[in-house]
């Protein structure tokens, strides 16, 4: 045995990136962009790689923190902002989406309408910039910078020297601006729009920023490092679509064939690539090929695509079913401890309460069989619980399917409950947008499965059992007194001390010594387990007739849970001292009480075992 400090293992992902960086650093082909004087000052040796995954992993090597201007990499992101401001239909009237096979600075306009062919060439990018809402150029630029801050997870800035250099040499882009104004694509003086375009191209970033921005697109518009929404998810597919077909200009076809990821390059040497749902790649090396793309950047993305099987069109088939479990309330109950009559009703009629526990990634193909089964099995159904605890992602098509079937079930009087979907879930946002003022009425949400199941059980019992008055139960209905005759019950009742509690009062607190056994005569109490993070988890709810606090009575250990009055509560307390005295004065009573406590614990254990067997 050694006392040496263990050496941390190097991530195989990072190790591979380091090997790739060493190998590709030897490539010196290409030239630094010189048509913009400031870009010609770049060191051709600069070379950085960064990969950011949609679950927040960051891997960077080389000059990943070397600042440079993003140039044309700004184009897809500004196009996305234009889509948010105007919608697809209106933007499509101003900017097409067809690849040209031409260079980035080609003047490729429709000869009739003057519409640029796509937003990745300069003409389309200038038109996109002109669509950004704002009363002044300063407001438009501020909105663009705020948008990039959401993508990158930090505030970025404009390189003033590069901007001045671009503005001083950007006569071709000014000509494009005037042509766009001539065709009515730009509705105002084109020069401020072109200047804003020069500024957006002069935004400073680094490899980590690029990879984070790409990962945000891969994560349906949500920055995986900050959780901020940079673009509405419904427009991500449009941005990635034009990146896939037009992002690498006249190299786009070969890129899609070889690398197979939506991408965008910039003449400062940056390249981003996006694998939807998985990761974003950012590479920086200022040596460019004849197409204006980074030589090393292309080699890195191609090597990673082959090594890690990242090609967009080589996706594996849908794996296991998203239906993890299918249960009914006849076989799986909430943690509410109920009287025997209620338990019997649930066992007999619980088949109408269905629980579907979902898992994995829910898309159209995986949601369709679930929706089909829900639609086909409505006979006798009272309520349906859809538990999202094990769901990783859900896309808009699946949200739409759930919305449509929800409306049908609601109209049929079948309650649908959604559990553990999370406050930022795309499903919640989709339902809120579609249901509007009916959101709270139709879309029932519970934080956990157990309270949702209890709500369904209560609803079923309210229909099938007569309403019970809110009064204290008679002594003979305490489960712990089963098997005792009337004289023996009277003996026990005389030893009890009555206490009342208001709703919210702590009846038992975890960690305190055990001194009494509680018999619940009126109201309900909830059992909570304190967690290390200071929160607490609901374990069970007890109804009148139940005994609680018995575990500490049996083993004399400190209380293990906190019990709180869920409503005004009346309890009968049997102290440890009086229970011990029964062993001397009435041993049969004590034996019966302990036997009843043991039987109650056995029933709880069997219930837990049965339900665990269903869950594993």
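Sequence proposed for the structure above (616 residues):
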């Amino acid at each position: 045995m050694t006392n040496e400090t263990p050496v941390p293992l190097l991530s195989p992902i990072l190790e591979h990136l380091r090997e790739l960086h060493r190998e590709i650093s030897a490539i010196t082909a290409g030239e630094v962009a010189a048509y913009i004087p400031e870009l010609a000052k770049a060191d051709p040796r600069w070379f950085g790689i960064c990969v950011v995954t949609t679950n927040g992993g960051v891997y960077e090597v080389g000059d990943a923190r070397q600042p440079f201007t993003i140039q044309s990499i700004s184009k897809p992101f500004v196009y996305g902002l234009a889509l948010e401001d105007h919608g697809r239909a209106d933007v499509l009237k101003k900017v097409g989406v067809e690849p040209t096979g031409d260079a980035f600075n080609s003047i490729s306009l429709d000869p009739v309408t003057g519409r640029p062919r796509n937003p990745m060439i300069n003409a389309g990018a200038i038109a996109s910039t002109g669509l950004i809402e704002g009363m002044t150029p300063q407001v438009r630029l501020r909105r663009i910078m705020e948008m990039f801050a959401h993508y990158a997870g930090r505030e970025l800035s404009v390189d003033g020297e590069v901007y001045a250099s671009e503005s001083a040499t950007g006569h071709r882009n000014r000509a494009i601006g005037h042509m766009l104004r001539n065709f009515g694509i730009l509705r105002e003086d084109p020069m401020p729009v072109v200047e804003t375009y020069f500024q957006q191209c002069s935004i400073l970033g680094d490899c980590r920023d690029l990879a984070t921005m790409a990962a945000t697109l891969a994560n349906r518009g949500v920055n995986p490092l900050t959780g901020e929404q940079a673009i509405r998810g419904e427009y991500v597919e449009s941005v990635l679509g034009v990146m896939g077909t037009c992002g690498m200009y006249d190299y786009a076809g070969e890129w899609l064939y070889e690398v197979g990821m939506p991408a965008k390059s910039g003449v400062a040497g940056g390249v981003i690539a996006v694998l939807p749902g998985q990761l974003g790649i950012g590479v920086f090396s200022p040596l460019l090929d004849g197409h204006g793309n980074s030589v090393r950047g292309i080699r890195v993305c191609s090597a990673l695509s082959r090594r890690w099987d990242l090609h967009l069109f080589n996706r594996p088939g849908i794996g296991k079913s998203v239906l993890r479990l299918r249960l009914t309330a006849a076989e799986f109950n909430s943690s509410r401890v109920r009287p025997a009559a209620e338990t019997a009703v649930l066992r007999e009629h619980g088949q109408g309460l269905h629980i579907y526990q979902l898992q994995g990634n829910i898309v159209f193909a995986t949601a369709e069989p679930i929706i089909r089964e829900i639609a086909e099995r409505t006979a006798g159904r009272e309520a349906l619980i859809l538990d999202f605890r094990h769901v990783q992602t859900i896309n808009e098509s699946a949200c739409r399917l759930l919305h449509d079937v929800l409306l049908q079930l609601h109209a049929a009087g079948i309650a649908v409950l959604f559990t553990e979907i999370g406050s930022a879930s795309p499903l919640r946002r989709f339902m809120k947008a579609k249901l509007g003022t009916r959101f709270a009425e139709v879309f029932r949400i519970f934080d956990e499965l157990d309270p949702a199941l209890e709500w369904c059980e209560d609803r079923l019992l309210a229909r099938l059992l007569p309403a019970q008055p809110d009064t204290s139960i008679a002594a003979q209905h305490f489960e712990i007194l089963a098997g005792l005759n009337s004289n023996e019950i009277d003996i026990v009742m005389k030893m009890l001390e009555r206490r009342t509690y208001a709703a919210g009062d702590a009846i038992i607190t975890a960690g305190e010594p055990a001194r009494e056994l509680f018999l619940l005569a009126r109201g309900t109490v909830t059992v909570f387990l304190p967690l290390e993070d200071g929160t607490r988890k609901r374990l069970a709810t007890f109804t009148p007739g139940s005994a609680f606090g018995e575990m500490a009575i049996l083993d004399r250990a400190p209380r293990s849970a906190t019990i709180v009055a869920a409503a005004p509560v009346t309890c009968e307390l049997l102290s440890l001292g009086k229970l011990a005295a029964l062993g001397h004065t009435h041993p049969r009573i004590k034996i019966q009480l302990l036997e009843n406590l043991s039987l109650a614990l056995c029933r709880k254990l069997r219930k837990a075992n049965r339900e665990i067997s269903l869950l594993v």
